[in-house]
Structure formats: C-alpha cells, structure tokens
Amino acid sequence: xxxxxxxxxxxxxxxxxxxxxxxxxxxxxxxxxxxxxxxxxxxxxxxxxxxxxxxxxxxxxxxxxxxxxxxxxxxxxxxxxxxxxxxxxxxxxxxxxxxxxxxxxxxxxxxxxxxxxxxxxxxxxxxxxxxxxxxxxxxxxxxxxxxxxxxxxxxxxxxxxxxxxxxxxxxxxxxxxxxxxxxxxxxxxxxxxxxxxxxxxxxxxxxxxxxxxx
Length: 214
Description:
This protein is of the alpha/beta class. It has one domain: Rossmann fold (3-Layer(aba) Sandwich), CATH 3.40.50. Helix content is 51%, strand content 13%. It has seven helices and five strands. Strand 4 (146-152), helix 6 (156-163) and strand 5 form a beta-alpha-beta unit. It is globular and about 65 Å long. It starts with a helix and ends with a helix.
C-alpha cells in the first residue's frame, strides 16, 4: 500500500469512526428501528402471556446482575404481567434464566410482588427465543398463543420478524428506548453515540440476514 493510499484509508476510517461515535448519527441510525412499532397502548382481553426476551447479564455481580437494558425489559414485562394478571415468561439461555430467577426472588422478597415466572432456558439467540417459546406454550396446551412480546425497542423489528414465523401471535410491547431528542453535544464523539451506532448496525445486519433466509 502506498503512503498516499494509506493516508486516504486512515482518514476515511477516522472520519467513519468519528461519525459513528456522535450521538447525532447514532440517533439517526437507531430511531427508525425504535419507531417501527409504537409503544403499547392497548392489551387485548385474550392475551395468553407476557414474554420477555433476555438481554445480557454481568457475571459475578453481587446483586441485580441483569444488564441495564435487560433489567428494563424484565421490569416492564413484570409490570405488564402484574397489571393485566398474565403469566410471565422469561426467554433466554440457561445462565441468563438463572440470573432472572435470582432477580425474581429479590423482587418478591423486597417488594412483595408475588411474581410467578416460567423460564425458557435453552435459547441462545432471538431465533431460538421464538422457537423455544412457541414450544413451551404449545406444550402447555395453547395451540395458537397470543403474547405480549417485550424487548428493547431497537430489537423489536428483528424479534417480531422471527416470532411471526411461528404459531405465536406477538403483540409488540417495546421498552428500553435509546434514541434521544436532546441535542446538546450531538456532534461530539462519545461512548453513548458509539453504543447507539453499534446497536443499530447490529440490528440492521441481523434483520437483513434473517430476512434473506426466508
């Protein structure tokens, strides 16, 4: 590689990194994903369960080990289950389900919520979330379940795509919104901007790959 070509490559990479690390670009990328499905307004009377998708945890944390986004998903799902008197299902891998069980126990002991949660503990990705949740509800004798699907708003388009390929009727109940309308420091690079861009690009790529598999 010539020195001139190296400089061009370096400048392009630096510019791209700068743009992706600004809150402005990150918000512009993630907002269309979050706005694809509106916030839940109405819950039909014939819903069978609330299904919360896992979203990561911090191994070894002494308390509340679910990561912030995952904790928001879990708490919103618990709120819906409590408000509408619905069963709550947490869908995630074995370790994340164990972590969620600890959180459930802490909430029940400290806040007296009396939550009863079923755990789907085999899935490793969103595709398996959908498949194993379908099997869990089908094995419970519900042929065509209708569920409230709880996950981060930016993750909802991909999750809805995959749940719609099962016998489940999934009503989106998005939470954990990340796009911000606050415009101060929009053009300064930050970890927040980079995080927004990362989540957005990850979802666009995942959605495209699953869409091509259809």
